[in-house]
Amino acid sequence: MQTLEQLQAGELIGIKKLKLACGLTKFPLEILELAETLEILDLSGNRLSQLPQEFARLRNLKIAFFSDNEFTQFPEVLGQCPKLEMIGFKACNIETVPENALPPLTRWLILTNNQIAELPRSIGNCARMQKLMLAGNKLTQLPKELANCQNLELLRISANELVELPDWLFSMPRLSWLAISGNPCTQHGQVAADLREVLWDELAMEEVLGQGASGIISRAQWKKPGAVSRPVAVKVFKGEVTSDGLPQDEMQACIAAGSHPNLVQVLGKIAQHPEQKQGLVLELIPQEYRILGITPSFESCTRDVYPEGTVFPLAHVLSIATGIASVSAHLHARGILHGDLYAHNTLVNATGHALFGDFGAATIYDQTDPERASALERLEVRAFGCLLEDLLDHLSPEDAAEECVPALLQLKQKCMQPDVLQRPDFSSILRQITQAAKL
Predict the structure, then answer these.
(1) Measured between alpha carbons, how far is 44 from 65 in angstroms, rounded to an integer?
(2) pTM of the model
(3) Which of 101, 103, 250, 261 has the smallest C-beta neighbourhood within 10 Å, fewest atoms?
(4) With contact defined as beta carbons under 8 Å apart, do 408 and 436 qualify?
């Protein structure tokens, strides 16, 4: 992170990336002196409420972050930035997004946790839009023009006020990762499965294992009265709106998922937390499991990335694909849309066994509407197709000529075809992988 003093002294001329978080209340005009080279600007965590018209001089700017500021309106001037493609205004109390304020090249837009009740019709002009994050707003409907964004792949509209979802949403040709929980249209009286309560006093917390948008996961010892202590993982939810939705929806979906060999086992839900926080007690994942992929980069936008030199033997490709197809079929049989089927939410061990997790974007949907249920499952099938494509792209060269590879490539194409309802369901995918493995 640079300093305002460096900027004002002219010491930052020629830089491509600038990050300032120092309680700014006005946009520093000295930033305009970086217009020839500046590509990434991060002014998150300040007290800004508007941008000057001169901001349009930043003609090489590609990425701009303004999260955790005091904007109440999305700045119209951003629509004049010809190269701007990734924009973040998370938690800014934005109420309105004016027409034509979105840059035409926008492909990644983050407006999570604001007060937006309506999207501009001009959003349909953003033909390159791939990732649209709108969880935690006040949207009551989606503009029909959004259907023009045929490249849209990831959509987060959880925790809004949507009373219905338009039919066109379920025929978007590339949509793969969808989060819709926490809206009136998804409240259909579902009740999560019963789960035993684990008293907070029975848990001896140890080191933090990881932290995500929705909560903190720690190692702990679970000491039930009269029993030997057991090592477990404990996830305590933060209770805030995340980029995916509401923590309580994640918790409900995680419980409703039940047991499966490719799921991390939920052992209980926390009771009597001293701060009344919600949480889950989970089976501790063995240390030999590693994350399969890395979260998308600025460049890849919606697709996971893999370390250089990543290679998967065919046996592992088959094992991972079988496991994820099996657990996905299990979830949809219970009416659960995971919403985040990715390699970065998949753990694998040395034998290729996969464990699937992170229900932050999950939705429990109404299975009494078979047409809608079928469309939701087949949207997620495209996400599986992307994962299978990644696995095959990193297939060990010595396995590339194996007889089952063409069948897997053909399956990948079926999963990713534009016509949503022509894609196979997960049960069919599982059968085809099993057949291919016999070749």
Answers:
(1) 6
(2) 0.94
(3) 261
(4) yes
